[in-house]
Amino acid sequence: MTSTAENYYYHQLNKEQKKVYFAMKEGLLKMEESFQVLKVSNRELADIYFMVRMDCPEIFYSVKFTYRYYPDSTMLELIPEYLFTKDKIKEHRQAMKSRVKKLVYRCPFRGKSR
To answer: For FRET with 101, which of 16, 37, 69, 114 sits at 20 to 30 Å CA-CA?
Structure first.
């Protein structure tokens, strides 16, 4: 279970917006070239993208997106732009995990009860 602070923006969304948030988060974490999300207004889409990036700083590699849709469709295709290649992103992720692990290991409070 994740804490509210961990998903601060997610918990402020309505049910429809949460579906967009989840689809966007999954697509960005998987580094997909494009993926489908529920069709929402331009403003909502931009706001939710911002919220995903604020809740998930590990998605640092996506800086903007475009989208396309058919007028009668309930879905739109989101096309993210990535700063790096997939291999470079994986390399950065591994380096971040290693660094966090090293910092946690050095933490003087690790393993001590309060």
So the answer is: 114
Long-range CB pairs of 26-30 (<8 Å, 24+ gap) are: 27/78, 27/80, 28/52, 28/56, 28/59, 28/62, 28/80, 29/56, 29/58, 29/59
CA distance 37 to 87: 25
Per-residue confidence band for 114, with pLDDT thresholds at 50, 70 and 90:
very low
Asked if residues 30 and 8 have their Cβ atoms less than 8 Å apart, the reply is no
Q: What per-residue string of b and e applies to 89-109 under the rule 16 or more CB within 10 Å gives b?
A: beeeeeeeeeeeeeeeeeeee
Task: Give me the DSSP letters along 56-109.
Answer: -GGGTTEEEEEEE--TT-SEEEEEEEESS-HHHHHHHHHHHHHHHHHHHHH-TT
Task: Indicate if the pLDDT at residue 2 is higher than 80.
Answer: no
Does the model's pTM come out above 0.90? no
**Over the stretch 14-35, which tens digit does the pLDDT of each residue have?**
999 999 999 999 999 999 999 9
